[in-house]
Amino acid sequence: MRIERLDVVLRARSAWEAMELGNALVRRHAGAIWKPWLLCTLPLFALLNLGAWAIGHLWLAGLALWWLKPVLDRIPLFVISRGVFGDAPRVGETLRAQWRWGWAPMFGYLTWRRLSPARTVFLPLELLEGASADQQRQRRRTLGGAVYGHALLLAVVCWHFELMLCLACIAAIAMFVPVDLLPETARAAWALIGEETPAWADIGLNAFGWLAMTLIEPFFVGAGFGLYLNRRTELEAWDVEMALRRLRDRLSSATPMLALLLAVVLLAAPAAALRAQTAAAVGDGAVAADASAPDTAATGHDHTAMADPHAHQADGEDDDAHGDSDDEKPVALDDIFDTVPAADTRFDRAADRAYDDPLLSGKRSVSYWKQRDRAEETKKKEKEKEQRKGDAKNASNAGKPLLAGVAQAFAFIGEWGLWLLAAILVLALLLTIKRWLPWMRGSGRRRAPEAAPVAHAPVLTPEPLPDDVPTIARRLWREGRQRDALALLYRASVQTLCERANLVLPPGATEAQCLRASRRLPEDSDRTLFARMVRTWQYAAYAGRLPDDAAFDALLDELHQQYRWRA
């Protein structure tokens, strides 16, 4: 790896930051990624759909395109693996590379590794490093072990994004349907799902899947590449290596200054040594002068020494020993320079921070396995058991008068509870024998079968209307078939509407559609009367509110006069 050419900042990142780094690389090289992606996937999409349409199973085209995702992932991986070094390839280079680059591991990624959530982390490892099979196995275990959970979550999130985009495309179609036509559209769509789906619907669903994959898959590959790059930075310490290289560059630029400083130090060293020797000679001369000066105490000491030669000899030995210890004692810097070094508060603060660092602390926790002593544990458990027994005995002795009745009640329930439940069950059966015994014998009363609801024929049918609508409607009303009479008037009103407004309504047109169509009637009185007829029919058909005889006769007469029906 030529890490000095990397176009990104190398530092220790969390897994989430690494995925965002990969997405940033995809956004930076968006043009270089999506242009070859479209040039490759659009012909592939057309060929797969043509082949699936030829065999009559268009859903196979969407499945095949989804299964070939690892092959198409090589396009964004090729671009960002070059772009991270500041050398983004052109569209022609990317397309030419797809014919010969990265085909060796594709068999595994199209078979047993197809559903692996970490394939975008392992794909750069096998396509960019070119290691042997054993090395790749070890590298996958080392690289993917720490980020496998993040890779799984990334795959789940991207899959949900693609699903939501497909549903959004389907919902966008419903946005262009008028509100009044939504129920009919929903029923038609459900009928298409239940029956054999037409070819255009299958191709549309495949197109939605391709569009969602086109938008999400490059970001999925980029996030996996970011995890791969971050794991290599952590394991191989690329950030430390780059810091050392920058330090080497700064030191190489400062080499002349260091050489000059070294020369000054070497020239000043002999002069400092000469001054030290001169100071030592001056000190020895002063000590010799002090030793030759007359001293009365010394004279007395000599007389004493003459009187006692053994004492003189001992004193001489002590002086020699004392002199030897003075010669061996090291000389402090304060005695030489006659100065006291000042305390450096900044150094003290830095030292305190260093001692507070947990990595430099002398304490650490060590965990290890230790074999249990079964005999000791058994003795401890027996001791605790005896202690609990003693505590329970003391507690029972203390609260015996209070809990004696409760204990007896629980003992009675535990001993006789099952018999009590059996007695209650038998009593309940005896009390309800009149209800269940006839049913058990088969002579119980059976419910009368509910009358099936009357099936009404569609209101707007292509059947022709009778010549004398008012007479037939009055006869149906008097025979007790009020709904049929109102349905006949409603059909005749709709036919008059179509004739006067010069339009054609479908047989399944709703009341709302008929009301909207009535706005084309030239006269306001016709529109008002038609709205009244529709409202009367709706009350009768959906709410069960029939008009009385007078209201029906008034409505029929007004319709007869206004619409000029033949009698």
Please explain how this structure is put together.
This protein is an all-alpha fold and 567 residues long. 74% of the residues lie in helices and 0% in strands. The chain has 25 helices and no strands. The chain has helices at 15-28, 30-55, 59-67, 69-72, 74-83, 91-100, 106-109, 119-129, 133-144, 148-175, 182-194, 199-236, 238-253, 255-292, 296-307, 309-328, 333-337, 345-356, 374-431, 433-441, 469-478, 482-501, 511-517, 524-542, 549-563. The longest helix has 58 residues, at 374-431. The radius of gyration is 52 Å and the shape is flat.
Descriptive labels:
mainly alpha, single chain, 567 residues
What is the gyration radius calculated from CA atoms?
52 Å
Q: What number is the mean pLDDT? A: 76
The percentage helix is: over 70%
Report how far apart the termini are. Answer: 99 Å
Major sheet details? none
How many H/I helices? 25
Give the strand tally.
0
Shape: flat
| Unreliable residue stretches | 286-328, 336-343, 452-457
* Range of strand content: under 5%
Could you spell the SSE succession in H and E letters? HHHHHHHHHHHHHHHHHHHHHHHHH
| Structure class | mainly alpha
Which SSEs are present, and which pair or pack?
Blueprint: H1 15-28, H2 30-55, H3 59-67, H4 69-72, H5 74-83, H6 91-100, H7 106-109, H8 119-129, H9 133-144, H10 148-175, H11 182-194, H12 199-236, H13 238-253, H14 255-292, H15 296-307, H16 309-328, H17 333-337, H18 345-356, H19 374-431, H20 433-441, H21 469-478, H22 482-501, H23 511-517, H24 524-542, H25 549-563
Helix pairs in contact: 1-12, 2-3, 2-5, 2-6, 2-12, 3-12, 5-6, 5-12, 8-9, 8-12, 10-12, 15-16, 21-22, 21-25, 22-24, 24-25
